[in-house]
Amino acid sequence: MNSEIRLRKAQIDEKEKIWNILQQAIERRRQDGSSQWQQGYPNADTVESDISKGFGYVLTVNDEIAVYAALILNDEPAYSTIEGAWLSNGEFVVVHRVAVDAKFAGKGMVKKLFDHIEEFTCSHGIQSVKVDTNFDNTAMLRILESKGYSYCGEVFLAGGVRKAFEKIII
């Protein structure tokens, strides 16, 4: 059976479902021994803010939400200061708050998410995708490596140091 997978903007009436997915991800990070997302961020207000600003996106499988992510154009103040160097200074898409529903965990959904983000980036004529993650988020680090993202250095975000990556799309 072929699943229909698509990326679309999240709707405000989906905020409870999305917050539930983020809570699952927060708990998985905790069980993995990570400090990422363990200080009350992201939270339900973050989700509502993302959606109302048009940053909230969902990857759906047969219309069921599998992954949530915030996609922000050209706007991440923390990225203006990097210990290291970005690959480019052009327009970029920032990927934040990637969370997979437990039902879809371990099925390569985040790689599919990045495929869709890269298509979105290209179709909007945007130069690159920038993303950061915690040092101890081995799952995301492996995904970024497998998708060809380059390690650019460190950024300071949400009270901690993060590894920063970029991939030139066009």
Question: What does the model show?
Answer:
The protein has 170 residues and is an alpha+beta fold. The chain has one domain: Gcn5-related N-acetyltransferase (GNAT) (Aminopeptidase). Helices cover 30% and strands 32% of the residues. It has 4 helices and 8 strands; from the N terminus they run E-H-H-E-E-E-E-H-E-H-E-E. A hairpin with a 2-residue loop joins strand 7 and strand 8. Helix 1 packs across helix 2. It is globular. The model has no long low-confidence stretch (mean pLDDT 94).
Any descriptors?
single chain, 170 residues, alpha+beta, Aminopeptidase, globular, GNAT family N-acetyltransferase, GNAT_dom, EC 2.3.1.-
Offer a concise description of the structure.
With 170 residues, the chain is α+β, with helices and mostly antiparallel strands. The protein has four helices and eight strands.
Strand content: 25-35%
- Classified by CATH, the class is Alpha Beta
Count every beta strand, where a strand is a DSSP E run of 2 or more residues. 8
Low-confidence stretches: none
Q: What level of helicity do the residues show? A: 25-40%
Number of domains: 1
The tally of helices reads 4
Query: Biggest sheet, open or closed, and with what strands and sense?
Result: 8 strands, mixed
CATH topology: Aminopeptidase
Strand-pairing-aware structural class: alpha+beta
CATH superfamily: Gcn5-related N-acetyltransferase (GNAT)
* Biggest sheet strand line-up: 1-2-3-5-6-8-7-4
Query: Can you write the helix and strand succession as a string?
Result: EHHEEEEHEHEE
Overall body shape: globular
pLDDT averaged residue by residue: 94
Distance between the termini: 33 Å
CATH architecture: 3-Layer(aba) Sandwich
What Rg is obtained from the alpha carbons, in whole angstroms? 15 Å
EC number: 2.3.1.-
Organism: Chryseobacterium endophyticum
GO molecular function: acyltransferase activity, transferring groups other than amino-acyl groups
Keywords: Acyltransferase, Transferase
